[in-house]
């Protein structure tokens, strides 16, 4: 009996074969996109598929080929700009290669939770995993290794036996500080991200090294949490201390926004009294008051390169550990200027 798209029973490959007057093998070839079928026969089979409401069983096809055409994406905090944009780039690159992306966001980045996420992805039949390891969780060898699945790490400087793709954080911090030093600033304070963040740690370390190399005093790093609120709190504390520097290097644009608010609130002019530099080059940075000088991170390249590396591993490419750093660039806008002359 002929079945239509609204039939309660799902049409099988044999139903399509009988309807089109071909073998089930021919229907399978058409469903798999093989080119060893006559165009007229393919058209007849496709017409039968449409009339019967037949959908090829992709899971069965993938099981036969040993490939699920899906990758897992694990992140500790999707709310951050970098993780959000990296995910978007991974999704686009995966889709163009014929893969889907399964997202798992971990609220509490512990070894146990990461191992649990890897286990759930195994159950969901992914071919490999991209882990955005934006916070320190301990040695990877204490995790449950994922049954030999290929893994690529994003945003980490840990000694891990996997390919790592990341922004060149040190280069970005040096660009920001060299810019400020070139403008004559000698009292520069750094508002950093959280201490358990790899990227925040690398930027803070570069800040210290650059000032030490310039034979300048290194003020205590003020630790924030990436939020504008923490930048505002640190900005207000600096002003209340009476030790306002001539420049502030913020670990991201959101904390820079909070710093700008505190400076405006105190009647200080940016950049005449204090210069401010951020990190990320978020879409909103151009609309800050004044427009924010910031370090541009190419999250699209990070996500694309991580995906390319993972797909190469899935396809049986080289398994040796690599560290791929994506360069940054400084975007100079209105929030930086020559250091004020002090008595």
Description:
The strands form two sheets. The chain has a six-stranded parallel β-sheet, sandwiched between helices. A six-stranded mixed β-sheet has the order 7-6-8-9-10-12, sandwiched between helices. By secondary structure, the chain is of the alpha/beta class. It has three domains: 1-52, Orthogonal Bundle (434 Repressor (Amino-terminal Domain)); 68-165 and 299-325, 3-Layer(aba) Sandwich (Rossmann fold); 169-298, Rossmann fold. 41% of the residues lie in helices and 16% in strands. It has eleven helices and twelve strands. Strand 1 (70-75), helix 5 (81-96) and strand 2 form a beta-alpha-beta unit.
Range of strand content: 15-25%
What's the total helix number?
A: 11
CATH topology of the largest domain: Rossmann fold
Mean pLDDT: 86
SSE series: HHHHEHEHEEEHEHEHEHEEHEE
Oligomer: single chain
Radius of gyration: 27 Å
Number of domains: 3
Task: Provide the fold topology.
Elements: H1 13-20, H2 24-31, H3 39-52, H4 58-65, E1 70-75, H5 81-96, E2 100-105, H6 111-123, E3 128-132, E4 151-154, E5 163-167, H7 169-182, E6 188-192, H8 198-213, E7 222-223, H9 228-241, E8 247-250, H10 253-265, E9 275-280, E10 293-296, H11 299-314, E11 323-326, E12 329-331
Parallel strand pairs: 1-2, 1-3, 3-4, 4-5, 5-11, 6-7, 6-8, 8-9, 9-10
Antiparallel strand pairs: 10-12
List keywords for this structure.
343 residues; alpha/beta; 434 Repressor (Amino-terminal Domain); Rossmann fold; 3 domains; 6-stranded parallel sheet; 6-stranded mixed sheet; 12 strands; 41% helix; elongated; disordered N terminus
């Amino acid at each position: 009996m002929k079945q239509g798209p609204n039939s309660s029973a799902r049409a099988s490959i044999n139903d399509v074969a009988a309807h089109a007057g071909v073998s089930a093998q021919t229907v399978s070839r058409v469903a798999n996109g093989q080119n060893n079928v006559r165009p007229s026969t393919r058209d007849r089979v496709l017409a039968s598929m449409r009339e019967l409401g037949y959908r090829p069983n992709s899971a069965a096809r993938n099981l036969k080929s040993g490939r699920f055409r899906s990758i897992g994406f694990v992140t500790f905090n999707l709310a951050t700009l970098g993780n959000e944009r990296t995910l978007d780039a991974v999704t686009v690159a995966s889709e163009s290669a014929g893969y889907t992306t399964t997202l798992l966001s971990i609220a509490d980045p512990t070894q146990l939770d990461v191992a649990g996420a890897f286990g759930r992805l195994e159950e969901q039949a992914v071919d490999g995993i991209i882990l955005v390891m934006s916070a320190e969780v301990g040695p990877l060898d204490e995790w449950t290794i994922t049954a030999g699945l290929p893994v690529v790490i994003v945003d980490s400087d840990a000694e891990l036996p996997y390919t790592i793709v990341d922004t060149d954080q040190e280069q970005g911090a040096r660009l920001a500080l060299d810019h400020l030093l070139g403008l004559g600033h000698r009292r520069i304070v750094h508002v950093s991200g959280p201490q358990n963040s790899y990227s925040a740690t690398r930027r803070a370390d570069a800040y210290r090294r650059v000032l030490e190399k310039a034979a300048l005093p290194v003020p205590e790093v003020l630790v924030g949490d990436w939020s504008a609120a923490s930048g505002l709190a640190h900005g207000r504390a600096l002003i209340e201390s009476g030790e306002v520097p001539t420049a502030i290097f913020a670990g991201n644009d959101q904390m820079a926004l909070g710093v700008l608010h505190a400076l405006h609130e105190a009647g200080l002019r940016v950049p005449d009294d204090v210069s401010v530099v951020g990190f990320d080059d978020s879409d909103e940075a151009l609309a800050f008051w004044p427009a924010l000088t910031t370090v541009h991170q190419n999250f699209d390249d990070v996500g694309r390169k991580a995906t390319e590396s993972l797909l190469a591993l899935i396809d049986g490419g080289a398994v040796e550990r690599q560290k791929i750093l994506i360069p940054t660039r400084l975007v100079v806008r209105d929030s930086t200027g020559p250091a004020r002359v002090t008595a």
